[in-house]
Amino acid sequence: MNKKVRILAGLTVAGVVAGLAYWWHLSNENQGDETKIVLYGNVDIREVDLAFNNSEHIDRMLVQEGDRVSKGQLLATLDKSRVQAEVSAAQAKVDAQKAAVARLETGSRPQEVRQARASVAAAQAKLVDAKITYERTQQLVRDKVASKQTLDDAKASYDMARADLKVAQELLALAVEGPRVEDIAEAKAVLKAQEAQLSLTQEVLKDTELFAPSDGVIRNRILEPGDIATPQTPAYTLALTDPVWVRSYAPENMLGKLKPGMKAEVTTDSYPGKSYQGWVGYISPTAEFTPKSVETPELRTRLVYQLRVYVCNPQDELRLGMPATVTIHLDQPQPQPGQQVPPCSESGNG
After folding, report:
1. For the CA atoms of 12, 15, 17, 23, what is the dihedral angle to 10 degrees?
2. SS (HEC) of 195-256
3. Would you kindly state where each structural domain of the chain is located, as residue ranges?
4. In contact, 280 and 260? CB cutoff 8 Å
5. Which of 137, 168, 188, 267 matches a 20 to 30 Å C-alpha distance to 110?
6. pLDDT single digits (tens) 192-245
7. Which CATH code, of 3.20.20.150, 1.10.287.470, 3.40.190.10, 3.40.50.850, is assigned to 85-203?
């Protein structure tokens, strides 16, 4: 137990000493030359967790850790057999409904109209025959040659023939006029719904492929072929190569000398004698305590403001977390509000 206490006490003292040393070094660095500001920080980049927008077995993983990828590059695929079957079924429904709409919009075929006219003619002939039979039966009944039942049967046949003619005439009118407007509208509405379902299944099919959203480097390959991918489970972690910046902190007494857009030079211990062109891209509007794991009451009063100094990194030499030194010369022209910073391709790399 005493050993653990001694270790914790030693870490506490080391943290305090490191914090004091940083502020002493920063103060001495900037007090010696009033024409520049020297800050210290670490290289920072954005990372993106890439996940499929679907749940299915992974079929292929196409890149490894450390691979450089470009925007739009295919990174992985899911098993597509089930989704492709759903797309085929939805496409078949759309094709069938399109045929139904076309049939309704075309209306009756000429053969159907001719058939309806022939049915009217046949019904008219039957009606004439039934009328003649009915009139003859009436005469036979008056002559007391036929029974009253025979007359009733003839009358029923005559009435039925007239009704059949009416039905045939209505069918002919429907054949000539074609489908109702409401039927066509209903068929089109069904087609629209089925086309929407087809689009949805096609989007689900697209979701079986994972593409790089931007240029970057694969930092971590999390899943493997055969794993179940879900929208909540990343398949890769992508480190974006642009933008790259140095996260640093400046005390309050330096804020009046710093403005967004000011040019800066960035150096690292990894590449001695080499500098990278950069510019101040962001100054935090709020103060925070000195960022470190151990604080004393004295150091808590040391409020700093976070700076983000963007850096040109054309050769991909700056890595996440790399310590860096930022030098900002105060004798440079002050940037105007809204002034655009030249891109790295123009500003170059020292």
Report:
1. -140
2. HHHHHHHHHHHHCCEEECCCCEEEEEECCCCCCEECCCCCCEEEEEEEEEEEEEEEEHHHHH
3. 30-44+242-347, 85-203
4. yes
5. 188
6. 999 999 999 999 999 999 999 999 899 999 999 999 999 999 999 999 888 898
7. 1.10.287.470
- For residue 315, what is the DSSP state? T
How far is it, in rounded angstroms, from Cα 249 to Cα 34? 18
Residue with tokens 């003839």, as numbered in its chain: 154
**Strand residues in the chain grouped as ranges (E):** 36-50, 56-61, 68-69, 74-78, 209-211, 216-221, 228-229, 236-251, 263-268, 275-283, 288-289, 303-311, 323-329
**pTM, entire model:** 0.62
Phi, psi of 281 (to 5 degrees): -105, -20
Average pLDDT across the chain, whole number: 80
C-alpha pair distances (Å), 244 with each of 120, 276, 322: 85, 11, 11
Q: What is the pLDDT of residues 48-106, one digit of tens each?
A: 999 999 899 999 999 999 899 999 999 999 999 999 999 999 999 999 999 988 877 77
**CA 212, 213, 218, 219 torsion-angle sign:** negative
Q: How far apart are CA 209 and CA 203, in angstroms?
A: 10
Residue 287 has pLDDT above 50, yes or no: yes
Q: How far is C-alpha 165 from the geometric centre of its chain's CA atoms? A: 63
Separation between Cα atoms, residue 260 and residue 250, nearest integer Å: 13
**Sorting pLDDT into bands at 50, 70 and 90, what band is 331?**
confident
Fold agreement between 30-44+242-347 and 85-203: no
Which amino acid does the sequence have at 152? D
* pLDDT digit string, tens, across residues 206-221: 999 999 999 989 999 9
Quote the pLDDT of residue 32.
54
Residue 211, both tokens: 């593409």
> In degrees rounded to 5, what are phi and psi of residue 214?
-165, 175
